Amino acid sequence: MQGNQALGAPAPLPRFSETNCVDPSCPVALQFEIDSAMENRMREARKRAEALTLNTHTHMLRFSSFGKEKFKLWGLSPDGVVQMAIQIAYHRLHGRAVPTYESCSTKGYFHGRTEVIRSCHDEGSQMVRAMNQDKRNVSPGYQPFTRNQQTELFKNAVKRQNDLSRLAVQGQGVDRHLMALNKVAHGVLPVDNKLLEAKIPAAIPAAFQHQVFGYSSTWLISTSNVSTTWNSIFAFGPVSEHGYGVGYLIHDDQVLLNLTSWRDSKETDSDLFAKSLEEAFFKIQETFE
Predict the structure, then answer these.
(1) pTM, whole model, 2 decimals?
(2) Burial class (CB in 10 A: 0-12, 13-18, 19+), 258
(3) How far apart are CA 254 and CA 56, in angstroms?
């Protein structure tokens, strides 16, 4: 089931006959004893959760002009196209490139969880400048990019994205390794399921205290692709104060993107980001057709 069909009602779950289990090993409901202190903490937790919910600005973009079939017709990776469209859209709206996280599963390894695919790279930045040249303030003598140049730069950016994705799946990413080294540098080591005390800052390598290291992991765009034939919406929240979350699904004839940001941020706007994403998809189509 693809495309619009994915939006229909799911198939009913199979019905199983009811049984009364008398075996003492069967599951039983747990009875919790909650005192007044715990009740207060639960109320505070609920307030915080509700505040986060109210502060979340969500825009569901249902881009139905084309999807995976068109991307493959152009000879491009569908996920690579969407990731580069996100880069184009952010640049069109905010005028810069920023650290971008795409979640990658490393389930092929024992205890494997995730690695980061860094979607903001040199090839992508070069492509973005070419694709968004209509937004640029040019000086006399500026030579605009031709369509052929835009096409080649976009292909190069998608290829780089594919290469980074392949490395991440193989456990050859950088972020999990750097995180482990950073933890070790701070004295955070597993010893009998306990953590050692953190070292004093003076003992921590300068690299881990550098401004660039901190900024490079401040994900202003956090994304995840969970394309399935049966799902029609997937949310992925922002992970920084002025960031976006993008959860998306790529179907044959459409791309479904759930865009999130914080309402109290003066820098982000999910509605404007959605509009910019539509422009980005059409700009890509204009380049390849």
Answers:
(1) 0.84
(2) buried
(3) 25
Q: How far is CA 127 from CA 81, 83, 121, in A?
A: 12, 12, 10
In three state form, how does the secondary structure of 6-52 look?
A: HHCCCCCCCCCCCCCCCCCCCCCCCCCCCCHHHHHHHHHHHHHHHHH
Containing H/E element for 56? strand 56-63
Provide the 3-class DSSP secondary structure of residue 137.
coil
Residue 265 pLDDT greater than 90, yes or no: yes
Look at residue 193 in the predicted model and tell me its pLDDT.
Answer: 55
Q: Which residues contact 49 (CB under 8 A, 6 or more apart)?
A: none
Write down how long the chain is: 289
- The region that residue 95 occupies, defined by phi over 0 for left and psi between -120 and 50 for alpha, beta otherwise, is left
The pLDDT assigned to 99 comes to: 97
β-bridge partners, 59: 259
Place of tokens 């949310």: 235
Which tens digits make up the pLDDT trace of 167-222? Answer: 999 999 999 999 989 888 877 776 655 555 555 666 788 898 899 999 999 999 99
Residue whose pair of structure tokens reads 């779950």 in the numeric block:
13
**What angle is formed at CA 251 by the lines to CA 268 and CA 113, rounded to 5 degrees?**
70
Which tokens belong to 151? 């096409």
Number of C-beta neighbours around residue 77 at 10 A: 18
Neighbouring residues of 72: CB distance < 8 A, sequence distance ≥ 6: 78
CA 101 – CA 220 distance, rounded (Å): 8
- Residue keyed to tokens 């810069």: 96
